[in-house]
Amino acid sequence: MFYTPATGHGLAHNPFNAIVSPRPIGWISTRDAAGRDNLAPYSFFNAIAYTPPQVMFSSLSRKADRGDTKDSLAQIRETGVFCVNIVEYGARAAMNASSAPLAAGVDEFAQAGIAKRACETIDCARVAGAPAALECVLRQIIPLEGASNFMVLGEVTGVHMRDDCLRDGRFDITAFQPLARCGYKDYAVVRELFELERPT
């Protein structure tokens, strides 16, 4: 099968999200200028640079009470900071609950029963039990083709790692089993690793 996005695929569901998978999930926490917290998962997310460490996520839709975007990006525009919380398999229900389309100003931490802690380098909350959390300062918001499509670039200014995930000097993802998005309503979990040596 071949299709062009401009003319359509003719399938019951859009295959694009499933083709580019699995994708890590950035559980993005933000705080607005009035001090109200927000938490939402984004599967168009990834690390993009080592030095300085940088991440990106994309916000691809809008809410009527937020103009051209959603709560996360609206709050980042106000404060210039955000935190990326890593999602473990054990938090899948809480992560999913935090994706509910709530009104602006409603705290998803409270609505989904998720404990929060303060960040160290930025004025923002983070998921207390997350295996890792990346405190970020906004570097760029890049408008993308399409309505309400924006890419957010942030520089990591602080890194939290749960002690039980550190083994033999490594951050061991099998200790918490990260959740990944696979398109449609499908998710995957990482439970096994293997190593490959790069050619010299």
UniProtKB/TrEMBL annotation:
Protein name: Flavin reductase like domain protein
Organism this protein belongs to: Aquimixticola soesokkakensis
GO molecular function, one term: FMN binding
Record SMART domains: Flavin_Reduct (SM00903)
Stored InterPro entries: Flavin_Rdtase-like_dom, Split_barrel_FMN-bd
Cleavable signal peptide: none
Domain Flavin reductase like: 20-173
